[in-house]
Amino acid sequence: MANYQLKSLGLAVSSASVLLLCSLSSTSFAMSPFNASYQFSYNGKNMGSATRVLTQNGNNWTYNFSAKAAAMASATETSRFTFSNGAISSNSFSRTSKILVHSNKLNISFNPSTKIISTQKDDKARSFPWKAGVLDELNAELQVREDLKAAGLKSAYFIADAKSVDTRQFVKLGNETIKTSYGTFETVKVLLKHDKADKNSIFWLAPKLDYLPVKMSHQDGKTSYGLLLTNYKN
Q1: Can you give the pLDDT at residue 230?
Q2: Could you tell me what percent of the chain has a pLDDT over 90?
Q3: Contact yes or no for 208/159 (Cβ under 8 A)
Q4: What is the domain extent for residue 85?
Q5: How many folded domains does the chain comprise?
Q6: Which CATH number covers residue 126?
C-alpha cells in the first residue's frame, strides 16, 4: 500500500494534472524550467516535503519529482523527454522508492524506432508495443498543462507503467480558491478517474502559475495523502 501511495505522488502529480481552459483568465506561457516545493501530509498529518523540478538542455528536458516522509519512506521519479509543437515525446522514466528497509525500482525505455516499450521492475523485465503519444506518469502532467493552454484536454491520455500502456481520463469538477503558504490562487479542480469507488485523486491547477498543481489529494479507502504548495521559482 505504501509503495503505491509513493508511486501515486509522482502522478500528482503526476502526474499529474488536468482540465478545460474554462472561465479563468490567464496568460499563455511556453513550457519553461521551474522548481516547486510542497508540504506532504499523510492521513491528515504533516509528514514531510516534496519537490518537482523541470530543467532544460536544448530540446532535452528532465522532470524530477522527489518526496520524503520523515524517516519512514522516500521516493524519486525522473522523466526524460523532448518537446516539439506542443507535444512531448518520451525517452525514459525511472522510479526508486523506499519504505523503511524495503526498496523497489522501475525503469521504462521508450523506443519509437523499434515500436517497443521496455520495462524493468526490480528483477522482472517486460516489453510491449509502443504507441504514438505515449507518456509516463510524470511528464503526463506537463502534457496536460500544455494542452490546456492550447486546444484543450484530449479525450484520453496513454500512459505507460511496468506492464502496459493504460488509457486515463480526467474530469473537471469546477473552480476553487486555494490558500497556500506561497499565496492564494484561483484554480481549476480536476478528478482523475479510478475504477474503485472508494479511490480518487483530485488536483487543483493554478492558471497564474502556468497550471502548476498547487494542491493534490489522494484517497484510497481509509488511507489518504496530500500535497500543498510552499514555494515556486520559474
Answers
A1: 98
A2: 52
A3: no
A4: 2-233
A5: 1
A6: 2.50.20
SS3 call for 117: strand
Which pairs from 195-204 meet CB under 8 Å and 24+ separation?
A: 196/220, 201/8, 201/11, 201/12, 202/173, 203/12, 203/13, 203/16, 203/17, 203/18, 204/176, 204/178
Cα–Cα distance for residue pair 19/16, rounded to 1 Å:
11
- Is the Cα torsion angle 133, 138, 141, 143 positive or negative in sign? negative
pLDDT the model gives residue 26: 38
Distance, in Å, from the CA atom of 210 to the CA atom of 35, rounded to the nearest integer, reads 13
DSSP state of 4: H
d(Cα 180, Cα 173) in Å, to the nearest integer?
A: 20
pLDDT band at 67 (very low <50, low <70, confident <90, very high): confident
pTM over 0.85: no
Where residue 40 falls (left for φ over 0; alpha for ψ -120 to 50; beta otherwise) is beta
